[in-house]
Amino acid sequence: MEDDVRLIPLSALQHMLFCPRQCALIHLEQQWAENRYTAEGRILHERADHLGHERRRGIHTAMALPLASETLGLTGIADVVEFDESQQPAVVRPIEYKRGRPKAHRADEVQLCAQALCLEEMLGVLIEQGALYYGKTRRRKAVAFDDELRGLTLRVVAETRDLFDSNHTPFATYEPKRCDHCSLIDACQPQVMGKQRSAGRWLARQIQSLDE
């Protein structure tokens, strides 16, 4: 990859699919704030984000494994990667830790699938499945890396690349279910920015009507 190409953090894909403006605030403007939800997620990750290895019952587990894809320009760290050595060749499974419960959107699955794409390029293997471990349910949710999810992941990678290349933060759009629990709501100000944008469009229409 050329030196001037900016690497995309794997976490940015999750942010992008959840909210492009949040992605830009975090990764372009370097803004961050913590609330109860981000603190719970950080504590959950601290349990896995210590580089190390262990073997149990034929499964080799790697924690905090650095990942990269030169082809896609991705970089990041996998919470856990399991190598099931009871099968030949060994079956590789990335495991991502998340607070809360499984979500209606696919942002977590896209981040996990991107990890699998990195591992496939690094190891020269096909990875068919991984898992998301949620802190509230304390259970794994199996995630199949089928054609649909792979296609969605590649699309999000391309959209995130476009966002990074533009170096532009999208306008705010207020959606209560998404915005009210976001730790960046004060920096984003979606209600205020959304009204300003609406006022700007109204003023532009008035000016246009005067010119006609």
UniProtKB/TrEMBL annotation:
The keyword S-adenosyl-L-methionine does not apply. It is an enzyme of class 3 (hydrolase). CRISPR (clustered regularly interspaced short palindromic repeat) is an adaptive immune system that provides protection against mobile genetic elements (viruses, transposable elements and conjugative plasmids). CRISPR clusters contain sequences complementary to antecedent mobile elements and target invading nucleic acids. CRISPR clusters are transcribed and processed into CRISPR RNA (crRNA). This is CRISPR-associated exonuclease Cas4. It comes from Franzmannia qiaohouensis. The gene is cas4. It comes from the Bacteria. Keywords: Antiviral defense, Exonuclease, Hydrolase, Iron, Iron-sulfur, Manganese, Metal-binding, Nuclease. It holds the Pfam family Cas_Cas4.
